[in-house]
Amino acid sequence: MSGIPEKIVEAVSYIRGSVDHLPQIGIILGSGLGNFAHEVTIEKEIPYTDIPHFPASSVTGHAGKLIFGRIEQKQVVVMAGRLHYYEGHTAAGVAFPIRVMKLLGIHTLLLSNAAGGVAPHLFVGDLMIITDHISLFTENPLVGRNEDAFGPRFPDMTEAYSKSLIEKAKSIAAELRIPLKEGVYFGVTGPSFETPAEYRMIKALGGDAVGMSTIQEVILATHAGLKVFGLSIITDLGLGEANNPITHKEVLAAAATAEPSMTALFKALVKAI
Ligand code: HPA
């Protein structure tokens, strides 16, 4: 693996030595959405802490392990527990698992997250396909020396969210009668939720939903040539609930309500890929 940073090589070698089947599809689950992992016919679970140099996850609702196995006969790796910038991980730390999964052989990355809705067409419990994102407020994970082995210095972002996967997801949802919204995901660092003025700004700038994850993973995945599909679960309304403070508990509860629909959609999408 020439040109690949040594720590990534060591992590990949460890995993290759521990699992029989290498994955084609990577899946990252958001806050309160970890039950999707039960859909996997598990071949091997590896706690992050066992993998050399792998950063550890610390948030309630995030387990912190890689799950290898099959969904609908496709080999997948599920990151049960994602790494957030607000936990103190550097942008490069958040990048680490994406690059590891790329080297294990995935060609597609599916992501879910919990997000606050700011667009008037979004309500708590909605599933929103991410059609694009705005990320000027989070650190770009590609800052620093370019890792030429993964991708170019200046990666194109005009189709960060695969149009063909979006079309597939929409036709699956129509078949399964799962209502789907679409919108632009606006990335913030967190961990504080936004002030009312910030929610208004996000809406004015073109965001439909706001969240504290996903952006850096998608930039890294795009850099590495992976196809990406992202889904937000709307867990609170930034602008619609002036006297209703937002809590992490509320986010987890709303995510749990929407999880069955997300699970059905992701399962069918994996099958169709
Ligand atoms: N803001 C930022 N991140 C979030 C929100 C929110 O309102 N809801 C869930 N994650």
Layout of secondary structure:
Layout: H1 6-18, E1 25-28, E2 41-47, E3 65-71, E4 74-80, H2 91-104, E5 108-117, E6 127-134, H3 163-176, E7 181-187, H4 196-204, E8 209-211, H5 215-223, E9 227-237, H6 248-272
Parallel strand pairs: 1-4, 1-5, 5-9, 6-7, 7-8
Antiparallel strand pairs: 2-3, 3-4, 5-8, 6-9
Helix pairs in contact: 1-2, 2-5, 3-6
Hypoxanthine (HPA) is lined by residues 114-116, 188, 190, 193-194, 210-212, 235-236, 238, 246, 251.
Structural notes for this entry:
There is one protein chain. This protein has 273 residues and is α/β, with parallel strands linked by helices. It has one domain: Nucleoside phosphorylase domain (Rossmann fold, 3-Layer(aba) Sandwich), CATH 3.40.50. Strands 5-8-7-6-9 form a 5-stranded mixed barrel, surrounded by 4 helices. Strand 3 and strand 4 form a beta hairpin. The mean pLDDT is 90. The site of hypoxanthine has 15 residues, from strand 5, strand 8 and strand 9.
Note poorly predicted spans.
none
Oligomeric nature of the chains: single chain
The H/E string reads: HEEEEHEEHEHEHEH
- Strand fraction equals 15-25%
Helix vs. strand class:
alpha/beta
Q: Report the average pLDDT across residues.
A: 90
CATH superfamily: Nucleoside phosphorylase domain
Q: What's the CATH architecture?
A: 3-Layer(aba) Sandwich
| Radius of gyration from CA coordinates | 17 Å
Residue share in helix: 25-40%
Major β-sheet, in short? 5 strands, mixed, barrel
Q: What would you call the shape?
A: globular
Bound molecules: hypoxanthine
